[in-house]
Amino acid sequence: MMPPLTLLMSLTWLLPVSLLLQFNFVWQAAMKPPPTWEREVFRWDCLQSPKGGKQWAGDDARDEVNPCLCAPHFKAACHSLETGAAAACRTDGTVRCRDKSGVKINRLLSAERDCSAGQGRVCSQRSPCLPCEPSKLQQWALAGLDAPRCRRCGSSNAGNCRFREGEGPYCWVRPGSNEVQPCALCCSDPSELINVNGVCK
Fold first, then answer.
1. For a FRET experiment, which of 75, 114, 171, 185 has its CA 20 to 30 Å from that of 151?
2. pLDDT at 39 over 80
3. How far apart are CA 195 and CA 133, in angstroms?
4. How far apart are CA 140 and CA 175, in angstroms?
């Protein structure tokens, strides 16, 4: 029979191994957000990126007004932020507006487009982005899915995606499909508004 001291010394290697295994389990658990949080996890590098033509966050961001705010032919109910009284729709940030279904109309385009669930800073083949063309985004909107717009097309933004094979940007082809393709346009025409049951998208 092995003496107790010898037995103890022969088992000392188990301690660091068990500690490493426990650390690995804790690390894996910490890196996986709870399922109820997954859609709300936003990576900072994604919010700061202009990937796929989206609005970005940061000091150098050019704030772009949401074209659905004060859009003609869509009735928005607005109230003054100062007095709370009903007010005419304005884009200067002095009123808060809601669409006919009671949902707040964001004044500015969101930097969270294609950044939920911990998506990265590029529109890759494994993590593609929504297309920017309103005619294509309408497919997502009509399916009841979130379809945020890209920055507006104009004289200072032609929407060139600068696609590179293997690098991107890649976009989804249609909702509910796993097909991806090179993004064709990385801006949204502000004159093309999506109408979903009288609500501007």
1. 75
2. no
3. 14
4. 6
